[in-house]
Structure formats: C-alpha cells, structure tokens
Design brief:
Layout (H helix, E strand, L loop, with lengths): L7 E3 L4 H11 L3 E4 L5 H6 L7 E4 L9 E3 L3 E4 L4 H6 L1 H6 L1 H8 L4 H6 L2 H5 L12 H6 L28 H7 L3 E6 L2 E6 L19 E7 L5 E8 L10 E9 L5 E9 L6 E2 L1 H7 L6 H14 L10 H6 L1 H13 L4 H8 L4
Parallel strand pairs: 1-3, 2-3
Antiparallel strand pairs: 4-5, 5-8, 6-7, 6-8, 9-10, 10-11, 11-12
Helix pairs in contact: 10-11, 11-13
Length: 340
Amino acid sequence: MIRMPWFGWRTPATVAEAARILAAEGPQAMLIAGGTDLVPNMKRRHQTPATLVSLRRVPELKRIVNSAGLTLGAGLTLTEVVDSATVREKYRGLWQAAAQVATPHLRNMGTLGGNLCLDTRCTYYNQSEEWRKAIDYCLKKDGETCWVATASKRCVAVSSTDSAPALIALGAKVKLVSSQGERDVAMAELYRNDGIDYLARKPGEILTEVMLPDAQGWKSTYWKLRRRGSFDFPVLGVAAAVKLAKDGTVEEARLALGAVASRPFLVEKAGEYLKGKKLTDEAIAEAGAIVASRAKPMDNTDLDLYWRKDVVSSFVDHALREVRGDDMRATRLRIARQAL
C-alpha cells in the first residue's frame, strides 16, 4: 500500500476565504477539489503539500449561469457538466470532451477546474517514488535529466486534459481569483509549453469559473484517441468549432490539439485556411494536413509516436465532417466506444 504523506486540511466556505488561506500558507499549500489527480500524485510523492485547501464546500464554484453565453463554475463535477442540457445542445465539443474523461466514477468526483489544471504526464514521471529513485529521478521532479529527450533543458511531459482543447476551440475564458484581485484569461493563454511550469495561473490564484461565448451559429466537436474505450488519458485530442453561414461557407473556424505537447493549443493557420471556404472534402483534407504539421508528439505516453502523428489528419477529418453534418456515429463508436 502506498500511503499519503501527512498534511493539514482547510475547508473554506467562500472563494475569498480560500484565497486568503492560500496567501497565508504560501507555496506549501495546494488546492484540492475532486482529488482524482492530486491524491495519486501525493501517494507517489510528486506533490507533498503541507496544507490542502478543499474547495468542495464552496457553493459559488458550482454555479451554472445562462446569459448571452454560458458560465460554468470550476467546482462542477464532470458528470454535472455532462448532465447540463445547455452544454450538450449548444457546446457539443465540451460535452463530448467531458463525457470521455476517465470513467463514470472518476467523473462523479473530478471537477471541470481540476481537469483544466491537470498535471502534465510522462512515462518517467508517473511512477512510484522507488521507481523514479532507481533511475535517478527526472527533470520534472527531483532530477536534472529529461529521460525522454536527454539533451533537452525543458521538461516535455504531456498535457492530457480533455476539456481544455474543446474550450480553446470554443473561445472560452477563465476567471482567476486571488487575495490581490481577479483577472480573466483566454483559455488558449492559460497554458505554457513547459511540462513543469505548464500553467499561467499564478501562485495563490484560484480558477473559479469558465466563461463561454454565445454559441449562436457555431457547431463544435471533440475527438479523442486512447487505447481503451474508457479510463485512459488521451494520446491525441482534436477539437473543432466552426461558424457556418446559411450557404455552408465557413465564417470562422478554430481547431485545437491536445496531448501532443506540454500544452493544448490552437492551430490558427488551419482556421485561417478554412475561413471563406465550404467544408468540401478537399478543404477538410488540407486543414487536416495543416493541423498535422503542428503535432509534435513525444515518446513518453502510450502508443507509437509516429503513428500518433500520422492519425492527426484523420481525426481532423472526422471532426470537420461531423461539423459539416455527415453521419459519423459508426466511426465515433468504433473509435470512442461510446455513442456521443
């Protein structure tokens, strides 16, 4: 049995109280909501906070506000996101992403904010303390060498969040709150391409809500590659959001990639290419080639990295055909093992 390290426990009732606790405790404090990622990491001694600040009893983090767009509290469980009729009907890409995270049990515990702040992953990092010690640790934790790319001075651990690529494609923003105030950050700007310093969230800041713009005229989708039909983290995530004119011409398009770098990111050139065009087979194929050229998977997660790069264009093809209105149910069922 791998035991948890000793830690203190605080249960604030408001975001303001949680922010004050974080400011007072300093870098030795960490936030916990569902704990589906943090608790296993603490058992493996990836993180050993002196104090955990629980957000489970903060009601303002559980809000869903419908207005011109949609605001989702970061404390909503992924199951609650999936159960939202508004998310399912208007923000289909986010609904599909949330529905494919892990298993029902983990979605019942894991939160939207937790999935967005998910720690980066790597074959050499996500191991027990004894295993990592045996290889002299790695650059991400306690060591000086990246065992994936030994000449690299940057950690190349991979971002494995499902919801982030979908929200980036949808043009979402997040609200970050600290004892010093609050600020809004575009979802695409929340992430850094560094396996260690992977979030632009400052120490002491709490991700409190996700703000989605009006979805009128937009269609979105999310496609995920993993070995098994459930539980596994993505080894590729493709999100697409497209605004179509009445004649089928693309007015705006955003395509985002996940699980192929230390951050999820927008492929601007693909969106620019599609703008003003119709989603013909030729246009979809070219957009797929543009997106695939930006995918740089590393050999530190499941499945062959060259094959994972090769299938990017196919997943973009699936996503854009679904947005176009093609019946992709059989293909999705074969890939996702879920009727989404």
